Amino acid sequence: xxxxxxxxxxxxxxxxxxxxxxxxxxxxxxxxxxxxxxxxxxxxxxxxxxxxxxxxxxxxxxxxxxxxxxxxxxxxxxxxxxxxxxxxxxxxxxxxxxxxxxxxxxxxxxxxxxxxxxxxxxxxxxxxxxxxxxxxxxxxxxxxxxxxxxxxxxxxxxxxxxxxxxxxxxxxxxxxxxxxxxxxxxxxxxxxxxxxxxxxxxxxxxxxxxxxxxxxxxxxxxxxxxxxxxxxxxxxxxxxxxxxxxxxxxxxxxxxxxxxxxxxxxxxxxxxxxxxxxxxxxxxxxxxxxxxxxxxxxxxxxxxxxxxxxxxxxxxxxxxxxxxxxxxxxxxxxxxxxxxxxxxxxxxxxxxxxxxxxxxxxxxxxxxxxxxxxxxxxxxxxxxxxxxxxxx
Length: 392
Description:
This protein has helices at 6-14, 20-25, 52-66, 78-83, 85-99, 108-133, 157-170, 187-196, 214-225, 280-286, 290-297, 300-303, 321-335, 343-351, 354-367, and strands at residues 145-150, 175-179, 233-235, 239-240, 249-250, 258-260, 265-270, 310-316, 377-382. It has 392 residues and is of the alpha/beta class. The strands form three sheets. It has a five-stranded parallel β-sheet, with helices on both faces. Helix 6 packs across helix 7 and helix 13 packs antiparallel against helix 14 (343-351). The longest helix is centred in the first third of the chain and has 26 residues, at 108-133. The protein is globular, with a radius of gyration of 23 Å. It comes from Linum tenue.
């Protein structure tokens, strides 16, 4: 299918019809790999594929994009990619700037992360926003689309959401990012939860259902969804995981970031977003301590999930990956001279989440979150390297 469109693709560039965004923005795409400022601006002429080698490099990129595992899921074909290749190159260049990389000298893992993962998901988000906006009449206020990202810890969801937010920002669409972590109970209330559930290791620390301030969630999400006009401003809550020697506390409101309206999209992410309560017998079979967590989960749909308009579920093959990913992160922190958990502390930390993963992930993957439909649900299966793969 890719070969079928190569002639059209090359004609488009040979005729000077491609890369119109480059003319408008004067983005310099070809540079010295030793440059200290990657993806910097330059002359308009140097941005065009002016020779055989440069055209071939763009053609290779086109073929690489078409080999991605998510294209069928988001309704893209080789023809639609060829017609919008300038947009793909723009988004790739913008991500290079964000991560301080050179778009002409990406490693294979970097190229895979950008063109097989972040950009396809961003285009899916754009399509969901367009569908959402089409439901409103001209002149009506359009509330921001809330996209929920459900993904286990350590799989890269925060980096993905940050990349998406950057692309929205630099292409002129205002976004807000919020995590379920930002709705954790205060340290004082977490202490009360621990005292009310003596001996239950799943509620001893933050994390599982019951350790979140659900009224605060509703208040925040409701206010964000009303950010439809110019001049509207709102502070986004943030949680300080370093407070109280790592036990955490709600961050000082004076340090919360401010977002301004009108918002186009709200990116809402969390490890247990979309989890649904199960029959008591099912959770007891996993871990008896999970019974109270399961009961707490009954209130979460009204507090979180009912606000979500579209869902991206990042699927892992084995929950034990969470331990390895967390261990890698903590080792990297220690090697960088920053405080990090020991291997034993990592094992204890992750063990408090594994029962919920074992209980709720199979249902999430089989049924999707409550309220989701095939039209507003994107399931992305990733490997141990955190890259998307074709589902089995």
